[in-house]
């Protein structure tokens, strides 16, 4: 692992490497909601602290009911997990694809899990000359005959681009006919504009080959809870996944928090408003700069490309880390080079500070 290619949330490793106390770092690399965890979660855990002496419900009925109300997906089509990562692993292990196609650049864990299960991986590149927007018809025509799984993140990390529900259904129909499973990671879906209809959740009941994964680390600012959930109407597949899943993989505090957070309408509304307003302001400002290209984003992070060949993403990372600011050097993502950076949206004053600092470094 190189000095700039750490996981976005690994402030411990970054702090040790650069001898900076973790609490002093301003983290623009983790893509986590800047509002912090909802008060409803804090209160729920404090009020139920004694629950640690018991086990969670093995069927997680109350948690699944809460998720069901939040997503409008039937409770029997919901499987909780120890973060999105456990569900990615379980789904891939259960299907055990011989050949998976991954829309890329994207999260490295997908490819890692395929390899661990002895499968072959094909990375399908999003094209920069199309601003990393996927052409569904081109994808469908390019899928090899022996492909048995397609994996995509929607909105995609690190590009921020997304497919809408019509495009997703076109892909799902093709894959259903070809007996191809589709795993859609919707980790960042709640940051999107709901009017754009990007989520595939409404398609769950219609497509037995669809498995949607969501987490609570980013939107609800709770990575330490390790709570995620899968959505799938293929009951045989759900049962098979549950048979391979460790019992009580969702700890009791995560289960309690999940019963509350999805009902916290004030927090959800406040987050969407903040991210939407700041996203527009940030993109508008970046579009004025001459030494970068900023890509439109549907999520809570922004990908930029440095246009000055004398400056690399590593250069920018080091200059910012010297000021205790952490962004993501995106050069380790497939198909991206050493001139790509990604940073997430934080509070207005923090975003203004980052933009002013970046402008001084990049534009002068």
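^ Assign residues to that structure.
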């Amino acid at each position: 692992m190189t000095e700039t290619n750490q996981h976005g949330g690994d402030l411990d490793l970054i702090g040790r490497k650069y001898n900076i106390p973790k609490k002093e770092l301003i983290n623009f690399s983790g893509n986590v909601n800047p509002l912090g965890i909802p008060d409803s979660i804090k209160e729920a855990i404090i009020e139920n602290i004694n629950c640690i002496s018991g086990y969670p419900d093995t069927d997680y009925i109350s948690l699944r009911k809460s998720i069901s109300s939040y997503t409008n997906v039937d409770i029997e089509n919901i499987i909780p997990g120890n973060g999105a990562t456990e569900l990615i692993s379980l789904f891939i292990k259960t299907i055990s694809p011989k050949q998976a196609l991954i829309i890329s650049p994207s999260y490295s864990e997908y490819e890692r899990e395929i390899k661990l299960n002895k499968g072959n991986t094909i990375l399908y590149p999003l094209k920069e000359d199309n601003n990393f927007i996927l052409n569904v018809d081109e994808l469908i025509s390019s899928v090899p005959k022996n492909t048995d799984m397609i994996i995509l993140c929607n909105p995609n990390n690190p590009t921020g681009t997304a497919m809408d529900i019509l495009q997703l259904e076109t892909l799902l129909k093709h894959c259903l006919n070809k007996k191809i499973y589709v795993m859609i990671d919707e980790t960042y879906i709640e940051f999107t504009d709901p009017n754009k209809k990007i989520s595939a959740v409404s398609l769950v009941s219609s497509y037995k080959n669809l498995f949607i994964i969501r987490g609570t680390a980013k939107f609800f600012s709770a990575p330490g809870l390790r709570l995620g959930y899968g959505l799938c109407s293929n009951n045989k597949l759900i049962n098979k996944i549950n048979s391979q899943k460790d019992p009580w993989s969702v700890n009791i505090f995560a289960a309690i928090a999940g019963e509350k957070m999805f009902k916290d309408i004030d927090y959800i509304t406040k987050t969407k408003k903040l991210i939407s307003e700041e996203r527009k302001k940030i993109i508008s400002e970046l579009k004025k700069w001459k030494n970068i290209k900023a890509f439109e984003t549907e999520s809570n992070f922004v990908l930029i490309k440095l246009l000055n060949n004398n400056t690399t993403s590593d250069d920018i990372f080091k200059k910012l880390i010297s000021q205790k600011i952490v962004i993501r050097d995106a050069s380790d993502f497939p198909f991206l080079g050493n001139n790509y950076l990604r940073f997430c949206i934080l509070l207005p004053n923090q975003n203004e500070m980052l933009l002013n600092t970046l402008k001084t470094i990049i534009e002068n």
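The two ends are 31 Å apart (CA to CA).
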